[in-house]
Design brief:
Elements: E1 6-8, E2 11-15, E3 22-24, H1 29-32, H2 35-48, E4 50-53, H3 60-70, E5 72-73, E6 82-83, E7 86-93, H4 100-103, E8 122-129, E9 137-141, H5 142-147, H6 151-158, E10 161-165, E11 176-180, E12 182-184, E13 191-193, E14 200-203, H7 208-222, E15 228-231, E16 238-242, E17 246-250, E18 264-271
Parallel strand pairs: 3-4
Antiparallel strand pairs: 1-2, 2-3, 4-16, 5-18, 6-7, 7-18, 8-16, 8-18, 9-15, 9-17, 10-11, 10-14, 12-13
The protein binds N-oxalylglycine (OGA) and manganese (II) ion.
Length: 280
């Protein structure tokens, strides 16, 4: 992993880990937000799957504007998680006002909004309060997971369409959506495993017991340690990821009892894929 900065056009970056991710070193999004910067960030995301831009003092409105440059903001289906007046921005928190399910809503391997017809392209988290311990996000590189399969695993994976439901519910309370397990990236065309964990409740055309076994096996494959990067947040980190190339998982939280245990993230998820012109 290089510790030196690398230039991508005007953006100075360095690797976040060996498995994936870039840190952008010279950007102040309050000053520099414009379509050219958005396109440069999108291009880096298509190549590296996760970006972290440190020290971004963004208001929720700034975050919504940033998101809107990438695509169409998605309003979360649980209305009480949306920020008042900014329905496209969601507040994740371990404060007292959250029930147990909301507290750890992201603490499982998943793909954002895969339980919908058009899942999220990008998700952004802005670190508004960071606990002293824990509170990271794990990312599993699904391009690498796709590449690291045997021929027979790959053949099976290519033939599978997963049936997804919100929170993996099987009680018919939420609609079902189908997505192929192997997808070409909508912009780069690079193949990756997609939605390989958690929300899958079945496989099209496969008996349930066999589907369960196959899905468990792909989930296990997709989340092996060599594919994982753990992001440890600093205050005012802005982290953006490309849901087409990774799975992610919040670390389990307990409810904050004091200030140094508080974790507050403002989140935006978008639909839409900014096109890039192919140049750096
Ligand atoms: C989510 C999620 C990650 C985190 O809200 O969908 O994955 O670290 N959050 O909070
Ligand atoms: Mn998520």
């Amino acid at each position: 992993m290089t510790r030196e900065g690398t230039m991508h056009g005007t953006l100075k970056t360095r690797a976040l880990s060996d498995s994936m991710g870039l840190e952008v070193l010279n950007l102040d999004l309050r000053m520099d937000l414009n379509p050219v910067v958005t396109a440069s960030l999108a291009k880096l995301l298509y190549e590296h799957a996760v970006l972290c831009i440190r020290d971004q003092e963004l208001s929720p409105k700034d975050l919504a504007e940033l998101g809107a440059g990438f695509g169409c903001l998605i309003e979360h289906n649980e209305a009480d998680l949306r920020l008042p007046g900014l329905p496209g921005v969601m507040s994740l928190s371990n404060a007292d006002d959250r029930d147990d399910r909301q507290l750890n809503g992201g603490a499982h391997w998943h793909t954002d909004l895969v339980h919908s017809a058009e899942p999220a392209s990008f998700t952004m988290l802005h670190a508004v309060a960071v606990p002293e311990h824990g509170g990271g996000t794990l990312f599993a590189n699904q391009v690498a997971a796709y590449q690291d399969m045997t021929d027979s695993q790959r053949e099976l994976a290519e033939s599978i369409t997963i049936v997804h439901c919100y929170e993996g519910r099987r009680d018919g309370s939420m609609p079902l959506f189908e997505h192929d397990l192997v997808r070409d990236h909508p912009v780069t065309g690079r193949k990756a495993l997609y939605g390989a964990a958690d929300t899958g409740i079945g496989v099209v055309g496969m008996p349930d017991a066999e589907a369960r076994r196959v899905l468990d096996e792909f989930a296990r494959h997709a989340t092996q340690s060599q594919f994982i990067y753990r992001h440890a947040y600093r205050l005012n980190d802005l982290v953006i990821w490309d849901n087409a190339q990774l799975l992610h998982c919040a670390e389990t939280l307990h409810r904050a009892r004091q200030a140094n245990e508080r974790r507050i993230m403002h989140r935006v998820s978008v639909r839409g894929w900014p096109q890039i012109d192919g140049r750096a």
